[in-house]
Amino acid sequence: MKTRWVATFSTRRSSLIMTSSGALTQILERIKSFDKVIWDFDGVLSETEVLHQESYRRVASDLCFVPTGDWYTPLIGNTACNNWGTLIECGLEATVADIPQLEARREQLFASLAGAGLRLSNIGEILVFAFDAAGIQQEVLSNGDLSLIAESIGQWGYDGVLHVVERQPDADKLALLEARARPGAITFDDTDRYLRAAEQAGAHAVGVRHSHNSHCVLTNPALNIDDGRDFPVRVANERLQS
Predict the structure, then answer these.
(1) 16-32 pLDDT, tens per residue?
(2) Choice among 69-83, 88-102, 126-140 with the minimum mean pLDDT
(3) Predicted structure pTM score
(4) Topology of 5-47+121-224 in CATH?
(5) Does domain 49-114 have CATH number 1.10.3470?
(6) Helices assigned H by DSSP within the chain
């Protein structure tokens, strides 16, 4: 028999009623055992990988380079500088000096593809709210565009809840994760190496499965980015719709 968890939260922001089972239930039942949350953004708080893939593909195509095979998988979770270097090694006719211009063009395309805004994932909508209701500190560590991430968080109404951790341009988030993960923290990521780093730091690491990371082992239990789609959810304030 599946374990079921039912709770009602009430905060200054809204009220929420939800029912869950499986891995999501385990997290909710243990919520007060955590004192810090570290979120990845792309593929965790928002299903963005399809947009990133298309933006890289279009810029590469403009330079007469057509990616083939499983070309996007090595790019997932890495910095833009690293990703352009990978594509150059695969035959893209460009140099390291061209990377800033390539990335500026890709960011424009990504913003255009994202349209009016990025949607908060199902697990994000459920868990960010729940952790906030429990008064638990939440951070976002990402290799993505931090200004776009902050803008999206603001659109979701969580700019006072989700703190985006700054990092140096082109720097990988790994060092920041190793410094900030610790016992008592829970981390959510879609990439194995970051999950391993969080575990080694003593945090409870949770893998998130989505359409573009079937190659990852992830951790057990792992969430799916769409988990909670069938939750009965009531939110007093208007929810962001894609």
Answers:
(1) 434 444 788 889 889 99
(2) 69-83
(3) 0.81
(4) Rossmann fold (3.40.50)
(5) no
(6) 23-29, 49-62, 80-89, 99-114, 122-133, 146-155, 174-180, 192-200
